[in-house]
Amino acid sequence: xxxxxxxxxxxxxxxxxxxxxxxxxxxxxxxxxxxxxxxxxxxxxxxxxxxxxxxxxxxxxxxxxxxxxxxxxxxxxxxxxxxxxxxxxxxxxxxxxxxxxxxxxxxxxxxxxxxxxxxxxx
Length: 122
What we know:
Blueprint: H1 2-5, E1 8-9, H2 11-17, H3 21-33, E2 37-42, E3 45-53, H4 55-78, H5 81-90, H6 94-104
Helix pairs in contact: 2-3
């Protein structure tokens, strides 16, 4: 998220991902302790701070992206030709799915029902 939208206030990732601020705070502390992010004061607010990825964080992100891309390529190669054609045919739908996911960010999930499922009880 910092690569795409940073620098951000510490609470912004929590709001964007619809997770508890304490979860984001712990993650930020961990990344800061590992030397993967930089913290600096927010010029727009004295009490707030901004976080951004630093060079070590950018390098780690690049490594993770290369490794996961390789794993995904191996998995796709293991598919049958018919499955690869279906996957290829579905690619034009990805932008619409990404737009839908972006619109859904910040919405709260429906409360879980007694049967453990979200939404209406069956």
